[in-house]
Amino acid sequence: MQQAVSDFLAELRRANASEHTIRNYESDLEQFLEYLQPPGAQLPEPSAIDAFIIREWMGSLYRQRLAAVSIRRKIAAVRSLFKFLQRQGVVSINAARLVRIPKAPKTVPAVMTAEQTNGLIDGVASEELDRPFPARDLAIFEILYGCGLRISELSGLNLDDFDFHERWIRVRGKGKKERQVPYGIKAAGALTKYLAVRTPQPDERAVFLNHRGVRLTSRGARAIVKYYAAALTGDSSLHPHSLRHAFATHLLSDGADLRAIQELLGHAQLSTTQKYTQVALTDLLAVYDRAHPKAKLD
Predict the structure, then answer these.
(1) Residue of 174, 189, 186 lying closest to 147 (CA atoms)
(2) SS3 182
(3) What was the pLDDT predicted at 106?
(4) 43: DSSP letter
(5) What is the DSSP letter of 168?
(6) Rounded to an integer, what distance in angstroms lies between the CA atom of residue 24 and that of residue 72?
(7) Distance between CA 253 and CA 256 in Å, rounded?
(8) 154, 224 contact by CB (below 8 A)
(9) Residues 70-121: tens digit of each pLDDT
(10) Which residues belong to the active site?
(11) How far is Cα 25 from Cα 12, in angstroms, rounded to an integer?
(12) Separation between Cα atoms, residue 98 and residue 286, nearest integer Å
């Protein structure tokens, strides 16, 4: 089984899966192997693992009080592993497909208002915090909010992904799918100021750089956003995806078409984008409750 997992992860790397995806698969599958090999036992062969064993493992995850979304992710990793092994002829069936996964609760993401979002970005622009690369940091915020990018998409941007004249970005999303995303005047101004002081290592094409002049990693970009959010708003729960949520929700609130938002976000399914309609309705009800004279009892 250990070799099977190694071969599967190698296949993901050959398929250009993101490092974030590979790390998650590796972590979840290592936990699965630990369960399969208690002290003093040997790992079973892949063909010996059936749906009953996987259900027992899932039961152990419940006993650890893991959230349903975490259990779903771990089972999905095992399903992908056995799908790979089935293609390789190692197993005849995908036993993990026979296990019913828990339903994930439908949650509405917390979203900053337009005023809160702009206040945060204005705080970054004010340079009141003593940071080594303020122009880069402002450009990061303007692109994340102005384009709704995932943090991995932002860190993967290269100079030749930008059409600076027409203000378009070529974005490589999940599964290496490409899409075209426009960016506005604010982001353009922040980019111009940053690129004027950008100091890359020779032949480095990444747009956003770290202190060594090479590509800023997703982890590094995430830490920058978290730092400013905590320092300027006092809310340590804000993260890069908060800006993506804000991007989509504010577009929808101002009348943008849901399918257009789907294209901008790079969602494969419209149902993924539809969660933002729930956010918009929640906000609408809150406004109604606050403002309408008949919303409350006298």
Answers:
(1) 186
(2) strand
(3) 62
(4) P
(5) E
(6) 13
(7) 7
(8) no
(9) 999 999 999 999 999 999 999 999 999 998 888 876 665 578 888 999 999 9
(10) 150, 174, 241, 244, 267, 276
(11) 10
(12) 43
Type of residue numbered 94: N
Size of the chain, expressed as the number of residues it contains: 298
DSSP letter at 209?
B
Tokens 């190692």, residue located: 90
Characterize the bridge pairing of strands 168-172 and 178-182: antiparallel
Question: Measured between alpha carbons, how far is 279 from 31 in angstroms, rounded to an integer?
Answer: 35
Residues with Cβ < 8 Å from 176, sequence gap 6 or more?
A: 16
The partner residues of 162 in beta bridges, in order of sequence, read 169
What are 158's two structure tokens? 């290269």
> Looking at the DSSP assignment, which residues form a beta bridge with residue 172?
178
CA 101 from chain centre, in angstroms, equals 22
Residue in 211, 240, 213 with CA at minimum distance from that of residue 224: 240
pLDDT score of 188 more than 90: yes
Amino acid at 129: L
106 Cβ neighbours under 8 A, 6+ residues apart: 275, 278
Composition of the chain by helix, strand, coil, percent to 5: 60, 5, 35
φ/ψ (deg, to 5) at 102 = -70, 150
> What residues pair up with 206 in beta bridges, in sequence order?
158
* Rounded distance between C-alpha atoms, residue 190 and residue 206, angstroms: 16
pLDDT digits (tens, 9 = 90+) for 136-145: 999 999 999 9
